[in-house]
Amino acid sequence: MNEDESVQDFHMTVLDIANDPEYLGEKISEDKLIRKMLRSLPRKFDMKVIAIEESHDISTMIVDELVGSLKTFKFSINERYEKKEKKSITFTSSTKDSKDCDELNL
């Protein structure tokens, strides 16, 4: 998965490869496909991958469940970053000319 690629696009790419007999010559199992997908995610998904591996039995998980979980994770990350960006404050400064300071005896 590329950094700028959506989870849905990544899912479609993986399914295209998994369903094309020219690439594999055999049907790939669901748990093997999930493991491959988890390994190919970018670093920003590391926390989610670890959570999935520790809390789910990957051998019983289905690809659609994984994709839904990844979409939710990416949505929450994007939402969190958008909130931080909206809270930015811009400061402006102004200086007084030395003439103004002299007039005020500063």
UniProtKB/TrEMBL annotation:
Alphabetized Pfam families for the sequence: Retrotran_gag_2 (PF14223)
Record protein name field: Gag-pol polyprotein
Organism: Vicia faba
Highest taxon in the source lineage: Eukaryota
